[in-house]
Amino acid sequence: MLLLVALSAIIGPFIFLVLLKMSAVKGMSLSAIIVILLAVMVWGMEGIVITASVLQGIHKALTIVFILFGAIVLLNTLKNTGAVDRINEGFRGITGDMRIQVIIVAFLFGSLIEGASGFGTPAAVTGPLMYALGFNPIAAAALALIADSSAVPFGAVGTPVNVGLSNLTGAGPSFYHDIAIKTTMVDLFGGTFIPFILVIILTTFFGKKKKFSNFLEMLPWTLVIGITYTGSALLYAVLFGPEFVSIFASLTGLVVAAITAKKKWLLPNSEWKEALQDNFKVTTKRSDISLFRAWMPYVIVIVLLLITRVIPAVTEFTKYAIDLTWSNILGVEGVTSGWELLYSPGSILIVSAILATIVQRKSIKNFIEASKESLLSVRSAGISLIATLALVQVFTNSGINMHDLISMPQYIAQALASTFGSMWIFAAPFLGELGAFITGSATVSTLTFSPIQLNIANQTAINSDIVLAVQLVGAAAGNMICVHNVVAASAVVGMTGREGDIIRKTLGPAILYGILAGLGGFVLLFFF
Q1: DSSP of 185-238, one letter per residue?
Q2: What is the biggest distance separating any 2 CA atoms in the chain, rounded to whole angstroms?
Q3: Are 437 and 10 contacting, i.e. CB atoms less than 8 angstroms apart?
Q4: What's residue 77's pLDDT?
Q5: Which end of the chain has a smaller Cβ tally under 10 Å, C or N?
């Protein structure tokens, strides 16, 4: 009975969004009501804790809406200045093949954004870029989510490792370094295939002609790109630790992808364009903006993200100059929601949009008009996110109750552990996925479940470092199906209300990635 109650936070969204095809507003609102009622009646959560958790969810939703607004206003500003047309010209100069474009934009450029920022920013940036390139909007959202996976354990300059594992005994630089290496080794089995998986999803679900050849002919090139990314990630983890793995690996991949695509090495001669939006027309008018100026706002985004996260004095200033964090909400200890306004990727995206008008020598009116349009775009997403985050925070805070029960996430974890026993290595990634699916964060998933993963590893005599590495990879896979990431990705391509459709496209890859992570961990057990 208690297990079923704990699983309600997963079962509800799956039924309403995936099976019944409800919008996130309706589906997550109903799910939140069910979870809250069960939390009160069965788990014994008091009214004040429930209320504080809902307020925490609302506050966290606002932080995400702020990032969404920043991502959309940057794209709309660049549309108004003509930079998007010039960026698209640049991509078409490399290739017009959408299968190659999705690897370069969603997987490699998205991984670069993930390495610098994390926190759902990549899909909010790459989804609109692909949409502007002509991708079907559902395809743009789903592919952006699937692509934001391999880079996630090292997102935001290594935050999931350095923060997610920080509550374990013995945590420190040497420990994080060892886990980073093993995580990249595990990901050789899963991350290497992400480019090919992206092409399969693109051609199978969104192509007009369902031919196996459409994705099979891309296998050699996608494997080269996948191995380039995961292999270089392993090298950078060995050399530098977790902080710059995603950034350096994605840059390495971008260089290899651009050169090989331009020269058509290992690529078919014909260009595949079957996932274009209906009536999409390629702009033939030559843009008056140079390619360098067109891309400069995105360069500014990456530079500002790195400066605010790597230089201690700047980090200190941006975190505390305007701090809207709400601590111990309604006096409930530990129920807190952080929001360092200047440190948020949303602020950086907005600043970059303003600077775009300067570096591209355009009127500030382009930004003002983009802001008005963008405010309307995030309105519906905000309602969905409030319902989603309310559910998440009640679920997460359920350990604060009158019955002395452990929290719902911990209850699920213990039930899984007792079921799988010595075969835990195959279940471990799915516990990580579960955490990310509910909380929307690989870091929070790892913070929540890494102590449980470590305890299970010790009880079953499995190498604990490998189990923790598999947890991180699983949490990355959970990014593909996390409801609030899906809500955000759908909002930035104008597909609010189609969240269930997107999850149906991303669920299979998320499960497959979890299986590959478990397999990778199992193989590594023979060597460590």
Answers
A1: HHHHHHGGGHHHHHHHHHHHHH-SS--THHHHTTHHHHHHHHHHHHHHHHHHHH
A2: 68
A3: yes
A4: 93
A5: N
